[in-house]
Structures are given as structure tokens and as C-alpha cells.
Amino acid sequence: MSAKVLLLDVVGLTADALRHMPRLTHLARAGARAELGTVLPAVTCSVQSSVLTGRMPSGHGIVGNGWYFRELGDVLLWRQHNRLVEGEKLWETARRRRGGDYTSANLGWWYAMGATTDLTVTPRPIYHADGRKSPDFYARPPALHDELRDELGEFPLFQYWGPTASIRSTQWIVDATRRVLDRPDAPDLTMAYLPHLDYDHQRFGPDSPEGRRAAVELDAAMAPLLDQAEAQDVTVVALAEYGIARADRPVDVNRALRREGLLEVYVQDGREQLDPWTSRAFAVADHQVAHVYVADPADEARVAAILRGLPGVDEVLGREAQARYGLDHARSGELVAVAEPGAWFTYYFWLDDDRAPEYARGVDIHRKPGYDPAELFFDPADRLAKAKAAGNLARKALGLRYAMSTVPLDPSCVRGTHGRLPDSAADTPLLLASDPRFLDGAGDRVHATDVRDLVLHWQGLGASATSDPHERIRA
């Protein structure tokens, strides 16, 4: 079987969400459906890399959405360069097996910069010399940038993440994907990232009225793309990296380490900054998983005991336990903490909000040493937060500098999370295919590391299961 494939990352797609998505439900009923066995951590960058390489995090090195770069002495999240992902990617394997006659496009999947796809479209803001940030995107070949901008307008960056995140960003990606499929040289593999469910499922919970409405909005936005793929005889494969589960318990793991004298800070302009160089232990919090870096092996038992004593911590994994989950990589922390169901880890390391770093109150995904879902909210304690944001946007329009200090420091507003392996069908991600034969022999559960070879097999380029059992551990 040889066919063009549209590989959609429908973030947060679960059986519960699918009930509110009639067009996608029609695709599943006419085609094939399975649960997706995800990886630990069940976060965007790790799972996407497993899907595209057929390896566990221990094999591709993406141990989270970010980690402590020991060689740099810095915590970095949401890096973009594809060379960070170890292993041959799906399209590279296909190109090699076809002798070079294979084309691919990436619209929004992570680690797009420097990737060997033929077409690339990914959000890439302009960081001005005066500190302002403007929406833009990177495109390759370069002519594609102006073509998409002229037809679709600028990429709606401020609707892609933050308190104003909405369907507009996903709609832009859908529209861009449709134009790529319409090209005379439409790729053999087109990958598109559709993040809309991530927003209100984290803000309000996956079972909230807002969460259900988000599923309806996403389905409506996807419908023209699915119709176009069907008309063009393109096989659609839709999957989610994770399902979002209800959450109501933030766990301040770094504050616990600081109170024990293990985490250190330094002060700039009266505000505290994490000092990873001198800290004996600190955590890179990433939803429900935290990589805990311990400088001295002699401290590991003490740090593990502190973590196990924290309410909301389910497991603490040393290297041997990490290996059982396929997470034992040099980039991983000496210890990995996994939260209990309903709990998640904050990155907060300060003990007094008046001493919090300036970035804490802003949407600043690259400077924060951990993931911050509170960025999805205007601070409910500040009744003028939205007015301040509007004023700052007006300043931006005039070319003036501004600071969006609207993010709450109280994380109790967050109602959805992910990262641990699923606990029930309600937070188990799905894999759907428009052709019922795509999952022939695969059963009703497909592991993330098997998706790569299922696509290769469908396109007549290889076996339907990865051949090296050491590269993956099924969840």
C-alpha cells in the first residue's frame, strides 16, 4: 500500500473529547481507532519524538519539554533545533528507503528548526532589540513565508499560548496545512500540530463546559481539512500525545528543596533567581513530572526521601527505575518525581511573592526554569489585569516597550494537567485513521513508538512494528 499521509497531532484527544467532535467521529467510524500507549513523561516534545523516531526517551534524548543542560549550566525549555532529537526520523527513514524520492512537510510539530523536512512552518516570534516581541513564523522554503502571510495574515502568536490563547492559532495552522496539500507537489507526509484542546482543558478541566466547547470548536475547524484530505485520497492519521486529566493540587517541589537548604538563589534588582550552578538539588518541573538534578551523589538518598515525603508525589525514580520506563538518559535528572493523579508540579522556587523574578508574572516560556500553566490566565486577583494588557498592546502598536505582568502567582486556578501515564480511559490518548486497514493486526492499543513504522508500512516502506525491542518499553 502506498499513499500520502496527513499526520495530525490533535493535542488532548481522548474518547471523552471525541464525543463532542462529530466530523472526527465520522472519520473514526469509517476508519480505525485505537488507544495510544504514550511514554513517560507524557508531554509534547517527548511523545512527538517517540512517534517520529520509534524510540523511547532513553533512545532519542527528549526527556521532557526541557531539561537542565549540564554543559551550559542552564535550564532551557522549548528549544527548537531538530539536532537535539537523537535517531532517524520517520521521513528520513522513508527517504532513505525510497532512494531519496520522498517529500515531507512539518506545520507546527516541535523541533522543526534545522529539520530535514522539505517544507517547514513553525511559530518564530521576532525579538526586537528594544525588548518587544512581535508575531511571526519561520518557513522553508523562504518563499513559503510570504505566500502564507499574504493569504492568511500573520501567525496569531498571542492566541497560540497565554491568557488569550484561542481557536485562532489552530485555525491558522489548519488553513496553512490545506494550502500545502493543495500544492502541485503535495508532500508524501504532511504533519500538522493542532493545540486547541490544550488551552481550556488545562484552564477549566477536560470535563468542563468550556472543555467540551473547545472540542466542538476544534472539530469545526478541522472539518474542511478532513474533507479535503478525503477528496484528495490522503490517508489521515490523527493522534494525541496525551490526554488531559482533572487537576487541583499544585506541588511546590523546588520550595521544599529550598527549605531543606538544597536549592540556592541569587538576587538581582531585589528579585530572586534560581542558581543551578551552586544548588545541591533543584527540579525542572514539567506538568506531572519533575527532573530533579542532584549535584553530589551522596545527597541522592536524602533528596529522594524529601520528595517521597511531599504530599502529591506518587513515585521517585532513580536511574534503575527510570530504565524501566525508558527514561534513563544522560539528560534526565538523577531523580525523577512523578505526581499523583490530580497533582502537578510548579516550578516556583521563591518563598515570598514580592521577591519573585520579573518573568514569573509574564508569559515567558523560554526564561522560566519549568513549565507554568498559570500563563493561560489573567491574574484573577488583579481586577485591572485585562485593562493593563490592552494598554500594553496599544503601546506595542505604537512601537513602545511594554511588560505583560498579568500572570497569577497563585496556581490554584489550574484545572487540568498531564505528564504521568494515564490512569483511566478518560485521560488515555487516541489514535485514529481514516482507512480501516491502517491498523490491520495492530489491535486496539498502539504504542507511540510503533506509529512511525505503521506509517512506513502503509506507504510500502517497511514492516509494521519496530524491530528493536530495546528501543521502547510499552506502557
From TrEMBL:
Gene3D superfamilies: Alkaline Phosphatase, subunit A (3.40.720.10)
Pfam families linked to this entry: Phosphodiest (PF01663)
InterPro entries with a match to the protein in the record: Alkaline_phosphatase_core_sf, Phosphodiest/P_Trfase
Domain of life of the organism encoding this protein: Bacteria
PANTHER family listed in its UniProt record: BIS(5'-ADENOSYL)-TRIPHOSPHATASE, ECTONUCLEOTIDE PYROPHOSPHATASE/PHOSPHODIESTERASE
Protein name: Alkaline phosphatase family protein
Annotated organism of origin: Agromyces indicus
